[in-house]
Write a structure and sequence with these properties.
- The chain has 664 residues and is an alpha/beta fold.
- The chain is built from 24 helices and 20 strands.
- The strands form four sheets. The chain has a nine-stranded mixed beta sheet, with helices on both faces.
- The termini are far apart.
Length: 664
């Protein structure tokens, strides 16, 4: 039924010029569809009205859904006429200083306040978090009016959760929770956050002690809590459920968890709840998910992407750098970073250089972070740098995200965990290394810059071995070739070097162990995107020897090579392998012994293999001191959390005493 409706909508807008340009990124769907709550599910396809972008623009009659009274609400204070509680509105307008709603908020909030289920197509960076929080919180207050008063704070229970927001990533979940706490500060609503990568026991103790009305969570952690009877987490009176970034949740394989979560929640027949599903794109799997979660006879589809809207990937300058070899990738990357930093310092750019550099693998993120750290230590890197990837503990990811948000000139090395939903202000550059996994990944990464009315630009560094795949994947996007980086075209196999190539060789020994993981990770996506597997192997071997000065490429095992489809290539197999190299390594390669492995202390490289024992001891001691400092910082952070927790408990106790006195 929903599939039928969405596809009818899609058919009407397929010819829209803007949608044709962004077709691969954003599936064209209807501007809105609203069905009367009295219509039965069987009659729904016949009774529903569907509007395309063009039809909605032309339909100015009284029957148009876009011209009802609620569509004219543009200021937050006007929401009082729609019943939104004054404690929510005063917080938004006075404390948070939001007056005028964004177009997404103006379309979504009035519709959702009517209590219907909502499927909204909305981009990140458009204010969509507040767009679903306001109706969600208002519905919770309608079902339990006493929660609107701060006097009720401290009465929450962990087994009586009234609202749930699901997010695909830890970072986005924490970001939503922070926003929800800001909005509810003048009410009695208690907000908790449950994500993976944090201590489950700590979260449970806090929730059981403080209670919870609104739970913001990742699907995996929420599913784990609901299926564990001893957790004390339950939602028998659930008023509203929100799925943010629904398409991303399905992309990363959360469909089974989502189905299990709904099985633990009360049936809509037992307890009617409002469901809001927010997604940047509407592919078939999102339609399938919507069919299982929303009420087919009482929902509204809201299209917040206007037909004349120019999308980020259509308007920001984008540059494609043809990088001759993987041996040139990091020299070219750091040349670009140094150049753009200097341009800002010389007054040639208005915005501070604040960049996110995306890699396809965690190992490459770690290698970039280590190299950046070594460059800062040697005085070459003139800006702060941070890294975020899936292997970091949540506390470390949160610290890095918060630090990057508040930084001026800075660089964040990241995997795709920050590509969707995360809000980092004033990002001037998005730099992508190698062919993205898909076209949508490129577009969502690029969307971290030029948010709102800010400027921004995108760069992609494409090694020769995957250049053809990159061009094919991104065909049709306004990306221009750029050959301004000297390091990108240096012939390292002929002995040519740039300053940045010399740096990489200098740091080669210090990042040997980290480089080995990065070397192997390149083959993961590279095997699928490279024009020639043998050429890919030869190129990354060149990277190891001529790029980082290693004596030979990292060794690999037979089983791994077979799994990767690289058994009969020029890989450096472990001794005793049944395979032999197709050709010997060139005689010009460095014959020095391989430097000892690189130990990692809290994400930083511990330098080893220095020629002089005294120098090595000194550097190890320095790194140990840094590690101890970081451990002390973590301990201090944990202590600070305990203090906050204790303060919160005291506040709740005092509030409970006041409640008892008021009752007397």
């Amino acid at each position: 039924m929903l599939r039928h409706g969405f596809r009818r909508c899609a058919g009407r807008v397929a010819g829209s010029p803007v949608l044709l340009r962004g077709r691969a990124a954003l599936r064209p769907v209807a501007l809105s569809c609203r069905c009367d709550a009295k219509v039965t599910a069987r009659k729904f396809p016949l009774a529903a009205r569907f509007y395309s972008s063009e039809a909605a623009a032309q339909d100015t009659g009284a029957g148009s859904q876009q011209n009802d009274a609620s569509a004219e609400v543009t200021e937050f204070e006007q929401l009082a006429s729609l019943g939104v509680h004054t404690n929510l509105l005063s917080t938004i307008t006075r404390d948070m200083n939001y007056q005028t709603m964004t177009p997404v908020q103006a379309k979504t909030i009035p519709a959702a306040l009517k209590g219907v289920d909502v499927v909204a197509q909305a981009k990140t960076g458009t204010g969509k978090t507040l767009a679903f929080l306001v109706p969600l919180l208002q519905r919770m207050l309608i079902e339990d009016p006493k929660l609107a008063s701060r006097a009720s704070f401290g009465t929450a229970k962990s087994n009586d959760i009234r609202g749930i927001v699901l997010s695909p990533t830890r970072e986005l979940a924490e970001q939503i929770a922070v926003e929800a706490r800001r909005v509810t500060r003048n009410t009695g609503l208690v907000v908790q956050c449950a994500v993976g990568g944090t201590q489950k026991s700590f979260m449970l103790r806090q929730t059981q002690r403080q209670g919870c009305h609104l739970l913001v969570a990742t699907p995996g952690r929420l599913n784990d809590l609901l299926r564990d009877p001893s957790s004390g987490i339950d939602a028998p009176n659930l008023a509203a459920l929100v799925l943010d970034e629904a398409d991303r949740m399905l992309d990363v394989g959360f469909e089974q968890e989502l189905n299990e979560i709904t099985s633990y929640l009360p049936s809509p027949k037992e307890k009617v709840r409002q469901t809001m599903l927010v997604s940047a794109t509407i592919p078939d799997d999102v339609i399938r998910l919507a069919r299982t979660m929303i009420r087919p006879d009482d929902f509204r589809f809201i299209q917040t992407i206007g037909r004349d809207e120019v999308l980020t990937h259509d308007r920001v300058p984008q540059h494609l750098v043809h990088v001759r070899s993987w041996a040139n990738v990091f020299p070219a990357l750091f040349e670009l970073i140094d150049r753009e930093l200097e341009a800002f310092r010389q007054g040639q750019r208005r915005m501070p250089f604040k960049a996110i550099v995306y890699f396809n693998t965690t190992a490459l993120v770690e290698l970039a972070a280590d190299l950046s750290y070594l460059r800062r230590r040697s005085g070459e890197m003139k800006a702060s740098s941070f890294s975020i990837h899936s292997k970091l503990q949540q506390a470390a990811r949160t610290r890095a995200a918060d630090a990057f948000r508040t930084s001026g000139c800075a660089v964040l090395f990241s995997s795709d965990v920050t590509a969707r939903g995360m809000d980092f202000p004033n990002v001037s550059h998005v730099i992508q290394v190698d062919t993205p996994r898909d076209r949508e990944s490129y577009i969502h990464r690029l969307g971290r810059t030029a948010r709102g009315d800010k400027e921004g630009e995108g760069w992609i560094l494409a090694p020769q071995v995957t250049l053809q795949s990159t061009r094919r994947l991104l065909h049709g996007l306004p990306i221009n070739p750029n050959n301004s980086l000297t390091s990108s075209g240096v012939k390292v196999e002929s002995g040519e070097v740039s300053r940045h190539h010399e740096e990489m060789k200098e740091f080669g020994r210090d990042v040997a162990a980290c480089f080995t993981a990065a070397y192997k990770s390149v083959f993961g996506l590279g095997v699928a995107t490279a024009q020639d597997k043998n050429a890919l192997v030869d190129d990354v071997n060149l990277w190891a020897i001529n790029g980082f000065g290693l004596a030979e490429p990292p060794s690999v095992g037979n089983d791994w090579a077979r799994q990767m489809g690289l058994a009969n290539t020029n890989l450096n197999f472990y001794r005793g392998s049944s395979y032999e190299r197709k050709t010997p390594f060139p005689s010009s390669f460095n014959d020095e012994p391989v430097a000892p492995g690189l130990a990692r202390v809290h994400g930083r490289p511990m330098v080893g293999g220095a020629p002089a024992a005294a120098s090595a001891t000194e550097e190890v001691a320095e790194e140990a001191a840094l590690a101890a400092e970081e451990m002390a910082e973590e301990a201090a952070s944990a202590a600070e959390e305990m203090v906050k927790e204790a303060a919160s408990a005291v506040e709740m106790t005092e509030q409970t005493v006041r409640n008892i006195e008021e009752t007397k």
